[in-house]
Amino acid sequence: MEPPRAPALRLLLPPLLLLLLPLPPRARAKYVRGNLSSKEDWVFLTRFCFLSDYGRLDFRFRYPEAKCCQNILLYFDDPSQWPAVYKAGDKDCLAKESVIRPENNQVINLTTQYAWSGCQVVSEEGTRYLSCSSGRSFRSVRERWWYIALSKCGGDGLQLEYEMVLTNGKSFWTRHFSADEFGILETDVTFLLIFILIFFLSCYFGYLLKGRQLLHTTYKMFMAAAGVEVLSLLFFCIYWGQYATDGIGNESLKILAKLLFSSSFLIFLLMLILLGKGFTVTRGRISHSGSVKLSVYMTLYTLTHVVLLIYEAEFFDPGQVLYTYESPAGYGLIGLQVAAYVWFCYAVLISLRHFPEKQPFYVPFFAAYTLWFFAVPIMALIANFGIPKWAREKIVNGIQLGIHLYAHGVFLIMTRPSAANKNFPYHVRTSQIASAAAPGPGGSESADKTFPQHVYGNVTFISDSVPNFTELFSIPPPASSPLPRAAPDSGLPLFRDLRPPGPLRDL
Question: What is the pTM of this model?
Answer without folding.
Answer: 0.77
